[in-house]
Design a protein that fits this description.
alpha+beta; two-stranded antiparallel ribbon; 12 helices
Length: about 375
């Protein structure tokens, strides 16, 4: 709450959070000096440093992933609080320096090679990204009227999607339990909005006060392989997905659909948040740049138990999750494998990295099946520090 005008100011050291037991990028980067410098600053939308870091203060760490520990409330957060965001971005994005580097964009899916996986191992393939509408607060800071404005802008634009991208809408507020369960089973909706990383940033999908069911919209095409979420963790989430191992086709549909969504939004006088240093601006710094996560659900009964598995993934710049989303453990021998990086490499580069990496994992699995040895590949290079 706000201080009484006549009370003496509270020193920044008295407000400084206790992060001694925390394992996230924000906790690693925050110092009393940075906190003192930024604590009383606000963005034009009145977003503060304390609001940005609350998710990282409330969540000391994550069992599988070193989390970022902070979110942006608007596009300007990344500038106003750059003294903290920049080192967090540099740690999370493999040494990418947002002060000196420029982010590339490339949505030419014809450049992908070897994008068809062995379907004895790869069960499904998907590519997703997020986009934010310039001039509106990001979801952690969105008022209900702003969420309705996001919905209005995007729903009107998506009405222009034709052909295999045309489809139907669901409002989560109008859904029956049965319909919600069907979406969970199809991996369109993750089971319960329980990621604590989202909840305390004000963004739990179904049960937290900041995100209303009546403004959370899912649109999918008739084939259910091109989806747009509206008003989830980001203003929009664009997803291309299908069963099987044809990542090249999934990425082709993703690029075509995403370009069409952007064209339709710009036709209505809006644009996506973007700058040449950070690429596309999204709520979580982990998604800056491309915002792209290209992933597969893959069966690895032998490699999944091998003590070298984690190191192989690390060197290939890949990340493993459970198949139910960021906060779930792997079920049996099936893993969700995706690119670790988002920023500093183009969409084409990241999808090719996943294609090459997943093919390497499949080759390892086949070698282990035959009783042969595998090797840990050399690490992919970091950005020059």
């Amino acid at each position: 709450g706000k201080r009484d005008i006549d009370s003496p100011p509270v020193s920044s050291s008295a407000d400084y959070p206790d992060l001694r037991k925390h394992n996230n990028c924000m906790a690693s980067a925050l110092t009393p000096a940075i906190y003192g410098r930024l604590r009383d600053k606000t963005t034009p939308y009145n977003w503060t440093l304390d609001q940005s870091i609350q998710t990282g203060v409330d969540n000391p760490g994550h069992p599988f992933i070193k989390t970022v520990g902070m979110v942006a409330g608007d596009e300007e957060s990344y500038e106003v609080f750059a003294d903290l965001f920049d080192p967090v971005i540099k740690e999370r994005h493999n040494g990418y320096d947002p002060r000196t580097m420029k982010h590339p964009t490339d949505l030419d899916s014809s450049k992908i090679t070897s994008g068809m996986f062995d379907e004895r191992y790869v069960l499904s393939s998907r590519v997703r990204t997020g986009r934010s509408i310039r001039g509106l607060s990001l979801p952690p800071a969105c008022s209900r009227s702003e969420r309705r404005e996001v919905e209005r802008v995007v729903v009107q634009a998506l009405a222009g999607l034709k052909g295999d991208l045309a489809g139907r809408y669901y409002s989560l507020g109008d859904m029956t339990e049965h319909e919600q369960q069907r979406l969970i089973d199809d991996h369109f909706l993750f089971d319960k909005p329980v990621s604590p990383l989202l909840t305390c940033a004000g963004m739990a999908r179904l049960c937290f006060f900041r995100l209303d069911l009546d403004t959370l919209i899912l649109r999918h095409n008739n084939e259910k392989n091109f989806l747009v979420w509206i008003n989830e963790e980001d203003h929009t989430r664009v997803i291309s997905m299908e069963k099987g191992g044809n990542m090249k086709r999934v990425f082709e549909r993703f690029c075509r659909g995403l370009k069409e969504v952007e064209r339709l939004i710009m036709e209505r006088g809006w644009e996506f948040m973007w700058n040449e240093r950070l690429g596309y601006i999204l709520t979580c710094p982990s998604n800056l740049g491309t915002g792209l996560r290209a992933g597969v659900h893959i069966r690895l009964p032998n490699l999944g138990k091998d003590p070298r598995f984690s190191k192989i993934l690390e060197n290939l710049r890949l990340q493993k999750r459970g198949t139910g989303g960021v906060d779930t453990a792997a079920v049996g021998d099936t893993f969700d494998i995706s690119n670790l990086d988002r920023l500093g490499k183009s969409e084409v580069e990241l999808v090719q990295l996943v294609v090459d990496g997943v093919n390497y994992l499949i080759e390892c699995e086949k070698r282990l099946e035959r009783g042969q040895d595998i090797r840990i590949p050399p690490p992919l290079p970091q950005f020059k520090k």
